[in-house]
Amino acid sequence: MFCYLSLHSVLVISLVSSYVAASETILKWPTVGISILVRNKAHTLPYFLSCLYNLDYPKDRIYIWISSDHNEDDSDKILDKWVEQYGLEYNGVHLSMNSSTSGKLFPDEVRSTHWSEQRFAHVIDLREEALDYMRKIWADYIFMLDADVFLTNKDTLKILVKKDLTIVAPMLISDGSYSNFWCGMSDDFYYKRTEDYTPILERATQGCFAVPMVHSALLVHLEKQVSDALSYRPARYDGPLDDIIAFAVNANNHSIAMHICNDHEYGLVPVPASDTDDADDERELTVNVKLLALGRHSPLPLDPLLAGFVRRPPPARLGCCEIFMINLERRPERRRLMELSFKELGMDVTLIKAVDGRTLDMNDLRKHKIKLMPGYEDPYHKRPMKAGEIGCFLSHYMIWNQVVSEQLEVVLVLEDDIHFVAHFRQRFALLMEELKTVDWDLVYIGRKILQNGEESYVTQHTTRPRYSYWTLGYLLSRRGAAKLLAAQPLARVLPVDEFLPIMFDQHPNATWKAHFPRRDLVALSAAPLLVHPTHYTGQDGYISDTEDSPVLPARKLRAEL
Ligand SMILES: *[C@@H]1O[C@H](CO)[C@@H](O)[C@H](O)[C@H]1NC(C)=O
Ligand SMILES: *[C@@H]1O[C@H](CO)[C@@H](O)[C@H](O)[C@H]1NC(C)=O
Ligand SMILES: *[C@@H]1O[C@H](CO)[C@@H](O)[C@H](O)[C@H]1NC(C)=O
Q1: CATH number of the 32-281 domain
Q2: pLDDT at 360 over 90
Q3: What is the crossing angle of helices 45-54 and 75-86, to 10°?
Q4: Which of 65, 95, 96, 100 has most ligand 1 atoms within 8 Å of CB, for mutation?
Q5: Beta carbons of 455 and 463 less than 8 angstroms apart
Q6: Closest ligand to Cα 237
Q7: Cα separation of 318 and 420, whole Å?
Q8: pLDDT tens digit string along 10-44?
Q9: Ligand 3: which residue has its CA nearest to atom 10?
Q10: Of 23, 94, 150, 254, which sits most exposed with the smallest number of CB within 10 A?
Q11: Dihedral (C-alpha) 475, 477, 483, 489: value to the nearest 10 degrees?
Q12: Residues 239, 246: contact at Cβ < 8 Å?
């Protein structure tokens, strides 16, 4: 009965064939060509490539196109090693390394961080080559990714592809107010600060926004017909020879919107070096971003394959006899993050096991002849002292004891949940220089300022602190430690961050002060502060501790010369 087809059964078959099982509607992920230009990026590539590899996107749908030249560092070696190890997992990898340019500058360059006309022209050629290449292989998307963009969010590519926008960029976090988008462009095509910028940067409003410029990491949907008009070549305009400006102007001329998305945290990017920076400064800018990531409790990933290429300063004590870090044994994750920060900064730090309030019992207190401040009550929460606060006091006290007994002239005391500001080492060195010229016992490098703007400067980077909270980080001299011990605080313990302001006579509570008749601690504070608590750094919308530092429209500097 199945041997002949009647008209009727043909009809049935066609009806059946119009039914498609749900599983048959699932498409593969679009194909993405990722283009990467490399020059002297040995300090970023190990992290960059680790992030790239970690992206959760089918690797057989990704084609990687890398061009590397004019290197004075290990960039080519790193690329070689990575491609050799992982290249086959991708749909394809095109790696072009021009070794004849190694160690060379362009004829019109002053130094390797200089963006000369010839360099811009070269970069424009390469970007166009990448764009042409991806068009020819019918890639659905091209992802133009700078080799210093750290996409820590593994879903970045999937999220961006799903947006279905012609040009879209993930907003990247950096130091200060720098990011990879502009909200305004001046008549002569340079960066213009506008009021829209900060709310997007701080993620006060979230989504994808049309802006006049995105750069550093941008996904272009090549399936869109209109995308054929996009080009990095400056076409009929009198603006500067600059790849990103030309691209943005071309997009604008063809009414193609550029979008910046801040709906997720996607990743980080260092502030670009300026023309006056050298290669060391450029590396330093990357260290700043590594510290920023650590401060957000999410260190940049680093593939062990490439870890050997990361250069760090040898551990030192930065002019102190000892650097101590107080850490609770049951907080190994904080310890690990801090140790990574110390490694980046080249700090030789001695771990102090904190006295754990949880395991402290009254017998311990009696044994150490410890008594609490009578009638102490937290000024804000109106609660008695917590065991953790007693433990914290004892941990600091132990260090003061050690400073006196071992005759340590200067120590740095750090707690374990802190974020180091950008350029910490240089700023700390500068502070130490200034401190040679003044008298001091204790210098806060991190604290909660309670009365802002009312403090007088002592040196260019120090003030005379008023009532402050926290003990995140402070320098202590031997004389300072002796004064703190002489006050016999264990006979009337209160939180250590209340005790210190009493000792430099800036505490508002006269009742408590009366317990410590001698309050002659000479205290200073670094200004601006050099460490901040990480739980603020990690908060949504948190920008940075360098909010008042000047905005670096580095691209403007770059293009002006
Ligand atoms: C390598 O760079 C040199 C100098 O810029 C150039 O002349 C040459 O064509 C380049 N080679 C390749 C294969 O791109
Ligand atoms: C592109 O835009 C620039 C600046 O707005 C303008 O000067 C130029 O004439 C435009 N070119 C085209 C082809 O529209
Ligand atoms: C000082 O602290 C004591 C004890 O907690 C409290 O009773 C008193 O009101 C405080 N004085 C001031 C001026 O805050």
Answers
A1: 3.90.550.10
A2: no
A3: 20
A4: 100
A5: yes
A6: 2
A7: 14
A8: 555 555 567 788 888 999 999 999 999 999 999 99
A9: 509
A10: 23
A11: 40
A12: yes
- Average pLDDT over every residue of 386-390: 89
Tokens linked to 227: 């995308």
Distance (Å, whole) CA 474 – CA 72: 40
Q: How far apart are CA 86 and CA 390, in angstroms?
A: 52
Determine which residue's CA is closest to atom 14 belonging to ligand 2.
Answer: 253
CATH class of 312-560: alpha beta
Give me ligand 1 centre to Cα 39, in Å: 14
Tokens of 85: 């190890």
**Interatomic CA distance for residues 224 and 77, integer angstroms:** 37
Nearest CA to ligand 1 atom 4: 101
Q: Which of 371, 315, 410 is nearest to 493 (CA)?
A: 371
What integer best gives the mean pLDDT of the chain?
91
Q: Is a pLDDT exceeding 50 seen at residue 257? A: yes
Q: Is the CB of 100 under 6 A from ligand 1?
A: yes
pLDDT at position 546, please? 30
Mean pLDDT of 443-457: 88
* CA 511 – ligand 3 centroid, Å: 6
Count the neighbouring beta carbons within 10 Å of the beta carbon of residue 504: 22
* Ligand 3 interacting residues, C-beta cut-off 6 A: 375-377, 509, 511-512
Q: Which alpha helices (H) appear in 355-386, and where do they start and end?
A: 362-367
Domain limits, the chain: 32-281, 312-560
Q: How far apart are CA 117 and CA 113, in angstroms?
A: 13
The gap between the terminal CA atoms of the chain, to the nearest Å, is: 84
Mutate which of 373, 377, 450, 498 for ligand 3? The one with the most ligand atoms within 8 Å of its CB, which is: 377
pLDDT digits 0-9 by tens, 171-180:
999 988 999 9
On the question of a common fold for 32-281 and 312-560, the answer reads yes
Strands 418-420 and 531-533: antiparallel
Task: Identify which has the larger pLDDT, 561 or 376.
Answer: 376
Q: What is the pLDDT of residues 73-88, one digit of tens each?
A: 999 999 999 999 999 9
Name which of 487, 489, 333, 339 is nearest 420 in CA terms: 339
Provide φ and ψ at 189, rounded to 5°.
75, 15
- Which two three-digit tokens encode residue 169? 């960029």
pLDDT digits 0-9 by tens, 134-164: 999 999 999 999 999 999 999 999 999 999 9
How many residues appear in the chain?
561
Tens-digit pLDDT profile for residues 400-412: 999 999 999 999 9
Asked whether the whole model's pTM tops 0.85, one would answer yes
Q: pLDDT tens digit string along 513-530?
A: 999 999 999 999 999 999
SS3 223: coil
Residue bearing the CA closest to ligand 2, atom 7: 237
Residue whose Cα lies nearest atom 1 of ligand 1: it is: 98
Q: What's the Cα-to-Cα distance from 281 to each of 112, 418, 560, rounded to whole Å?
A: 12, 24, 20
**384/220 Cα distance (integer angstroms):** 59
- Counting ligands in written order, which one lies closest to the CA of residue 102? 1
Alpha-carbon span 50 to 305, nearest angstrom: 9
**Amino acid letter at 361?**
D
d(CA 476, CA 357) in angstroms, rounded, equals 24
